[in-house]
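We emphasize that the prediction below concerns an isolated chain of 116 residues; any contacts that depend on oligomerization or on bound cofactors are therefore not represented. The input was used exactly as deposited, without trimming of termini.
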Amino acid sequence: EVQLQASGGGLVQPGGSLRLSCAASGFTFGNNDMNWVRQVPGKGPEYISGINSGGTSIYYADSVKGRFSISRDNAENMLYLQTNNLKPEDTAVYYCLTYNNNAYYTGQGTLVTVSS
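Result of the prediction step, given as a C-alpha cell string:
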C-alpha cells in the first residue's frame, strides 16, 4: 500500500523558512518521480515542484521559483521541500504526490500558515 506522510508545517512569520518532509513507503521510492502540491481550502490544488527519480531534473512553478528547493534521499525514502522567504500567499496545506501503478497518491498533508 502506497503511503505518503508529509510533515514539518507550522505557523511562521513572513520572510521565515520551513523544511517540509515526506516519508514514503509501499513502493520503490527510487523509481518514482516525486512532487509537491499545495491547496488552499476552497480552492483547487497548485502544482509547485517536482523532481525525477534520480534527482537530476527539477521543476518549480513560477510562484515559488527562487524561494523553494526540492530534494530527495532515495536511501531513506524521503522527499523534502525547503521553503524560504515565505509569504502570506504561501499559506496552504502541502502534499507530496507520486504516480504509481496507474494511480496518483498524495497522502496526508501538512499545513503551512504564514502570518504575522
